[in-house]
Amino acid sequence: DTAVSQTPKYLVTQMGNDKSIKCEQNLGHDTMYWYKQDSKKFLKIMFSYNNKELIINETVPNRFSPKSPDKAHLNLHINSLELGDSAVYFCASSQPQGKAFFGQGTRLTVV
Amino acid sequence: DQQVKQNSPSLSVQEGRISILNCDYTNSMFDYFLWYKKYPAEGPTFLISISSIKDKNEDGRFTVFLNKSAKHLSLHIVPSQPGDSAVYFCAASYFGNEKLTFGTGTRLTIIP
């Protein structure tokens, strides 16, 4: 039973399209995150939600919009995709000051 | 500004020997440190953590050491096993700021 699951695992799309990545956690955690791993393999926080409320929004283009319908779900919607958005996106969840559990990642390729 | 650094991109160790992975940080506010292991096409998996009130934490073959004055931590794996071959990320956070700041990772290869 996967703790943090995200779909899809692979996503190939054309420039200019809009796409969404879904994430669900069954750990009962209050906090969920989106991280981006770029071509240099650097893992960087994008957003953090606590109990459906946005608490961290790093300097991410506003084409990226997270949505948390409830505390177990945090989806990422990306408008007008650009080549530079190609990366692996990881969803994670944790309790405050606790270890974060990560999903398997979504490899997004924009062509 | 890279607040968490792993200066060795790769490390090769013979099976059965000790693997030592290093991590340096610059932000004095960090008070919680973690190590994650990552296999290809998978998400990072939590390995071990340490709070700044401690200088050592051990879990089986894995031990993390923290030197606050040097702003340095290390992960020791002993004995190293082939299944330990992966990329290891050091991460840090502090109370009130829940995000993890990651290092760039060290690829560990265990040679049979």
Structural class by sheet pairing and helices of chain A: mainly beta
Q: Total number of helical segments of chain A?
A: 0
Q: Biggest interface, which chains?
A: A-B, 27 and 22 residues
Counting DSSP E segments of at least 2 residues, the number of strands of chain B comes to 11
Name the shape of chain A in a single word: globular
Low-pLDDT residue spans of chain B: none
Number of separate strands of chain A = 11
Describe this structure in words.
The complex is a heterodimer of chains A (111) and B (112). With 111 residues, chain A is mainly β. In chain A, 0% of the residues lie in helices and 57% in strands. In chain A, the strands form two sheets. In chain A, strands 2, 4, 5, 6, 9, 10 and 11 form a seven-stranded mixed beta sheet that branches. Chain A has a four-stranded antiparallel beta sheet with strand order 1-3-8-7, with no helix packed on it. Chain B has 112 residues and is mainly beta. In chain B, the strands form two sheets. In chain B, strands 2, 4, 5, 9, 10 and 11 form a six-stranded mixed beta sheet that branches. In chain B, strands 1-3-8-7-6 form a five-stranded antiparallel beta sheet, with no helix packed on it. At the A-B interface, strand 5, strand 9 and strand 10 of A face strand 4, strand 5, strand 9 and strand 10 of B.
